[in-house]
Structure prediction request, 227 residues.
Amino acid sequence: MFSPSESSRPQQELRSPKALQRRCWELAAVRKQKSKEVALLTDQMRETETYVSISEQVTEALETLSGQLFEQQLHLIQEKLTIALQEVLEQPLKLKAVAEWKRNAATVEFQIEREGNTEDIMKGQGGSVANVLSVGLRMFALMTLDETEHRRVLVLDEQDCWLRPDLVPRLVKIIHEAGQALGFQIIMISHHDPTMFERYADCIYQFTPSKDGVQVQRIETDWQLRD
Prediction:
């Protein structure tokens, strides 16, 4: 049961012009806010519809661009490593990179071409070609890494193992020049005579096993003294 005074309050408020005016203002503000929200959602839907309508074209364009950049990288690798092969081995060798796309991924097969004839990289030169190519490919791989997370340090362990002694200085020269150009710190481990490195190495350490352990000696060369 409600008292007459309680039941009459809503009617009195509705009959009040000020109350009605205040209520109209409130509803008008809500309507204005809802209209803004509808307009914003409408714009977002239009943008989404536009994106969906061109998504396939964008995907195709990005795939085409990725393929073009990949081909450019391969061309650069072929060019630079062909120069390195010819300078180190003094033979008419060319590096050929054959790319193939399978399941949205690229596979690359490297071949050596000599005067139009294809040779196996591992067998054709008894490993000397592999010595040169592996250095270059490692440098290219390191160049793709984020410098803020990966230092440009390359350690080459017996990278000249299949080269004739007279070819070793040529490989060291290529490594030295590439390291300077790309900003790499390179540590090269070799069993060859230290004199083969003296012209291009910033410093040389010789490790000699003995009964007391391993002796380490820094070798000063005439080339370093000239600098």
Q: What stands out?
A: The helical segments are 4-15, 17-89, 121-124, 128-143, 168-182, 222-226. The domain at 127-227 is CATH 3.40.50.300 (Rossmann fold). The first strand starts at residue 93 and ends at 102.
